[in-house]
Design a protein that fits this description.
By secondary structure, the chain is of the alpha+beta class. Helix content is 42%, strand content 16%. The chain has five helices and three strands. The protein has a three-stranded antiparallel beta sheet with strand order 1-3-2. β2 and β3 form a beta hairpin.
Length: 118
């Protein structure tokens, strides 16, 4: 056992949280990918791509709100998207920005229609 290790990790988390929130201010958002490539197929493929969850695994422990937005489909017909991240208690802002992005990109498209896109 390492005495104080857990406390140091908690302190680091709080420092990172404060640094990001300071940069965001009251009305800023951070846009980042949901995954490092198009969505993986279910089962084994998703488990083999566990490093792709790095983006969300960094946001979740910081207790920052994040809203996922579909942004289209890759050449393989699988969805891609991004996260809209805000400061704590600013969920309304991430939801609003996500809605604006989704509207600008044409809204949600059923996956079976993705195949028909050029």
């Amino acid at each position: 056992r390492f005495p104080g290790w857990g406390n140091r990790q908690m302190d680091l988390r709080k420092e990172m949280q404060a640094a990001i929130e300071d940069k965001l201010g009251n009305d800023g958002v951070l846009l980042c990918p949901v995954f490092h490539r198009t969505a993986p197929k279910h089962r084994l493929d998703a488990l083999q791509s566990f490093l792709g969850f790095t983006y969300s695994s960094m946001i979740n422990p910081l207790e920052l709100p994040a809203t996922a937005v579909p942004t289209g489909f890759g050449v393989n017909g699988l969805p891609v998207g991004l996260q809209v991240v805000g400061r704590r208690n600013n969920d309304h802002l991430t939801l609003w920005v996500a809605a604006q992005i989704e509207a600008a990109l044409g809204g949600w498209t059923p996956p079976w229609r993705a195949q028909a896109r050029p």
